[in-house]
Design goal:
- With 259 residues, this protein is mainly alpha-helical.
- The chain folds into 2 domains: 163 residues, no CATH class; 74 residues.
- Helix content is 57%, strand content 6%.
- The chain is built from 11 helices and 4 strands, in the order ααααβαβαβαβαααα.
- The strands form 2 sheets. The protein has a two-stranded antiparallel ribbon with strand order 1-2.
- The N terminus is likely disordered.
């Protein structure tokens, strides 16, 4: 790895998590900790299934959500039918994904259901991980039209907030909502891939080196490249706003130095 790339990777911190269409916390640590043993019991076999390739990744994630909700809300985690046509043939989907194609679940936005169906039908390029990749990794993936979904399985991870911001289940849903925003509209997908590819090229060319020296601007930039899936024009406008902020700060600093 070149020194410039190392500097960029060190400057760009892991993405901050922002709330969009569901609550920041589905469960607080005080709710998770008494359920630690149950969560481990339900999810450990699922980890084994995933590691041994015994089920598809969208099926693993769908079952993860259901089992997590089953432990935390055993009496009311399932809702009714949602009447949104998400799959031409739900019966041909893996069983748990098929449930999301037809049913609602507690605290689960429909964008999560859509993302799981798109994934199972091969209409998105998602990859399951059990850790949070850094912002540069996410940018490089998005520049290729790919995204990550993270599920946590280790016992100590199941009762803690991820990066102090989301519970483990909320984090999984957060990733799936982003996937829906990335793949849900084909014209948005193409525009976002072009934006991220261009931003990566400019970043690796050193165009943003000075910007990344400013912690505030670097934080905003990190959010755009790793945790903001939106209409391509919105992405471009947000990045332009960050660069304009950099320009104003430079002008202000230059004025201070002259005085």
């Amino acid at each position: 790895m070149q020194s410039n790339e190392i500097s960029q990777s060190n400057s760009i911190k892991k993405s901050t998590l922002r709330q969009r269409r569901f609550r920041q916390f589905l469960f607080h640590e005080s709710e998770l900790q008494p359920k630690a043993e149950q969560l481990e019991t339900q999810l450990a076999p699922l980890y084994h299934v995933w590691q041994n390739g015994l089920a598809s990744e969208p099926e693993i994630v769908a079952r993860y959500i259901i089992e997590f909700l089953r432990v935390m809300r055993p009496h009311d985690f399932r809702g009714g039918l949602h009447y949104h046509r998400m799959a031409a043939s739900p019966e041909n989907l893996p069983s748990s994904v098929g449930e999301f194609a037809q049913k609602t679940f507690r605290s689960t936005p429909l964008s999560v259901n859509r993302a799981l169906v798109l994934w199972a039908e091969g209409r998105s390029r998602l990859k399951l991980l059990d850790y949070v990749p850094d912002a540069m990794t996410i940018l490089r993936l998005q520049a290729k039209g790919e995204r990550i979904v993270t599920c946590f399985f280790k016992p100590h991870e199941l009762t803690r907030l991820v990066e102090g911001k989301r519970d483990p289940l909320g984090f999984v849903m957060h990733d799936l909502v982003h996937a829906d925003h990335f793949y849900g509209h084909s014209e948005w997908t193409m525009g976002q891939v072009d934006f991220y590819a261009d931003t990566l090229r400019r970043l690796e060319g050193g165009e943003f080196d000075n910007l990344l020296k400013d912690d505030h601007l670097a934080s905003r930039f990190t959010y755009v490249i790793s945790d903001m899936n939106s209409h391509p024009e919105h992405l471009k406008q947000t990045l332009a706003s960050i660069l304009e902020g950099q320009k104003k700060r430079q002008q202000l600093n230059a004025g201070v130095e002259l005085n």
